[in-house]
Write a structure and sequence with these properties.
Blueprint: H1 9-35, H2 40-62, H3 65-91, H4 112-128
Helix pairs in contact: 1-2, 2-3, 3-4
């Protein structure tokens, strides 16, 4: 039986993902509404990051077997996105005239976007590996 995702440190993780969903979504919304033509790739990637953060937040908060799989997918995609966009923004800075949440590996957000999916994947792994103790009833 897997441990609940949204208990103890998991609640903090859900809260952080929620804050990032809100901040990335607000930032992308303002950028897309006011100056999308200046950096469409960067602003679209910020919107994508916001969607990923929303999906991860909801999946981590629900803590069901299905939501655990969704959380793994979302957090894994987030890590790949941070690594890909972070690398691309350094290799080809002209393609990113304005920063995204994931630009420069999340430097504008104190590198939290780089560290957060690592913590999220660890938490998913850690809570998923818990076996019931002999005193706990079997889930058969």
């Amino acid at each position: 039986m897997a441990e609940s995702l949204n208990k103890g440190p998991g609640r903090v993780l859900v809260g952080i993902y929620g804050v990032f969903a809100l901040s990335a979504g607000a930032r992308a919304g303002v950028q897309i509404a006011s100056k999308f033509d200046e950096a469409p790739l960067a602003y679209s990637l910020s919107a994508l990051a916001a969607v990923v953060y929303v999906v991860a937040t909801v999946a981590l908060a629900r803590s069901t077997p299905t939501s655990r799989r969704v959380a793994f997918a979302a957090v894994g995609f987030e890590l790949l996105g941070v690594l890909a966009v972070g690398t691309a923004s350094i290799v080809d800075p002209d393609a990113f005239p304005d920063a995204t949440v994931w630009s420069d590996f999340g430097q504008g957000y104190g590198f939290v976007p780089l560290v957060l999916p690592l913590i999220g994947l660890f938490w998913l792994w850690w809570t998923g590996r818990r076996q019931p103790s002999p005193s706990e009833p079997s889930a058969r």
